[in-house]
Amino acid sequence: MKTSITQAGSHVGEEVTIGAWLANKRSSGKIAFLQLRDGTGFIQGVIVKSEVGEDIFQKAKSLTQESSIYVTGVIKEDTRSPFGYEMDVKDLTVIHESTDYPITPKEHGTEFLMDHRHLWLRSNRQHAVMKIRNEIIRATYEFFNQEGFVKVDPPILTGSAPEGTSELFHTKYFEEDAYLSQSGQLYMEAAAMALGKVFSFGPTFRAEKSKTRRHLIEFWMIEPEMAFYEFDDNLEVQEQYVSFIVQSVLKNCQLELTRLGRDTSALEKITAPFPRITYDEALKFLHEKGFDDIKWGDDLGAPHETAIAESYDKPVFITHYPTSLKPFYMQPDADNEDVVLCADLIAPEGYGEIIGGSERIHNLELLEQRIKEHQLEPEAYKWYSELRKYGSVPHSGFGLGLERTVAWISGVEHVRETIPFPRLLNRLYP
User: Fold this and answer.
1) At what angle do helices 124-146 and 402-410 cross, to 10 degrees?
2) Coil, strand, or helix at residue 242?
3) Apex 4 CA angle, 32 and 56, nearest 5
4) 3-class SS at 400?
5) In this structure, are residues 402 and 221 in contact, taking their beta carbons and an 8 Å threshold?
6) CATH number for the 117-417 domain, one of 3.30.930.10, 3.10.450.10, 1.20.1090.10, 1.10.8.60?
7) What is the rounded distance in angstroms from the CA atom of residue 416 to the CA atom of residue 262?
8) What's this model's pTM, rounded to 2 decimal places?
9) What DSSP state is assigned to residue 330?
10) Which of 23, 32, 117, 404 is 20 to 30 A (C-alpha) from 204?
11) What ranges do the domains of the chain cover?
C-alpha cells in the first residue's frame, strides 16, 4: 500500500511503500539510517543488514544524496524522533540516481544557496518555512470566509498608482502606459461598494531599491476592504485576523516551529486586543529613548519601530500619522486635520511593520482636493472618485504583507527565505 510520510502515523505496524528522496544517510557495517523526505515531511528509515540481505543493504549504503526511491517497510512509533515515527525498511527500489548534488550537509554561503534556490527549497529548514507560509494562507481564507468576506481579484496591470509612480514598474500596455500593481486597494474599494466586505490575495510589486532584510521587489499581500467600517472597526478586524493566523500556526505547525527553533512562548501571547499608541506618543517615547534626531513629520524607520516594539509582547498599532507622510486617500482626523485615521501594525521581536491600513476618504470634494495636492492625474482616478459620487459611505481597509508575517511567525531573519523564489534588487535568477 502506498502512502505518504505525513500519513505514516495512521499505519503503525503496517507495511507500506513511500516514494521519497534521500536527504541524508549514515551507516555502519550492519545498519544504515536513511533520512527520507517526500514533500509532505521527513522520516528516518532504518535498514538492518541481517534482515534484508547483502544486496539490499549495499544498495542502501551506496545511495547518493537526493536520489529518488521507493522504500517499503513497517511504520513504528519512535519517541526519540520529532516526527514520532520511523520506518523499518524491508526493501527499496531506485527510481533515479542523483549525482554531484551541489547542496551538501556542510555550510554554504547565502549567495550560493540563492543561486540554487530551486534545490535549497528541499532542505528541512526551507520545507518548514514553506509549510508555515501555507498554513498562514489557509488560515487567511478560513478567517475571512467565516467572517463573511468575499474573495475578489484586482488586476495586476494598472493604469494608475495608489501611492504615486516613483516606486512602480512601468510597462507598455499596447499604446498606453501601465504599471505592475503595488496594491489592489483602489479596486478593492470598488468591490466593497458592491459586495460589502471583500479581500484579495495576490502579488504586488515595488521598484524600491532597498537591500534590507525586510524588503522584496515582488511580494504577496492580503488586502481586505470593508464598507461601513470606520477606523476603530478596522483595527479590530486586523487584531482578530492576526491573532487567528498565529494561533492556527501554533495549532497546526508545531513540528515545523520546533524544526526552526522558534520560541513558541512568544507566539502564545498573540491574542487580541493589541496595544495602540499614536504617532505623537511614539515620538515622545523615542525621544525618551535617546532618538533625538527624529522630529514631528518624519517617518519612522526600522530602528524606531524596533525600539517601540521591544516595549510590548504583542504587535502594537501606531496610529494617527501626519497627513504629509501618507497617501492621498486617507481620511483626516475630524479633531486634527494634520493627521489621518491610519495605523501601522508593528510586529514584535524586530520584524517591523506587517500591516498598513486606514479609513478611506469618502467625501468627493476632499478626495478631488487630495488628488490635486498630490499632483496626480484626475482623469486616471475618475473611476475611483466616482465611488464617492454614487452612494458614498465610510469605509476602511488594510494590507498585510505575507512574507514579513511569515518571517515573524517562523522566526527567520530575512524575508528572502519566506517566499519560494525571492525577487531582490540584484536577483532575478532562478
Assistant:
1) 120
2) helix
3) 30
4) strand
5) yes
6) 3.30.930.10
7) 18
8) 0.97
9) B
10) 117
11) 5-96, 117-417
Residue bearing cell 515620538: 283
Which set of grid coordinates corresponds to residue 393?
A: 459611505
Q: Into which CATH architecture does domain 5-96 fall?
A: Beta Barrel (2.40)
Selection from 405, 348, 397 nearest residue 136 by Cα = 405
Q: Which three cell numbers stand for residue 215?
A: 524588503
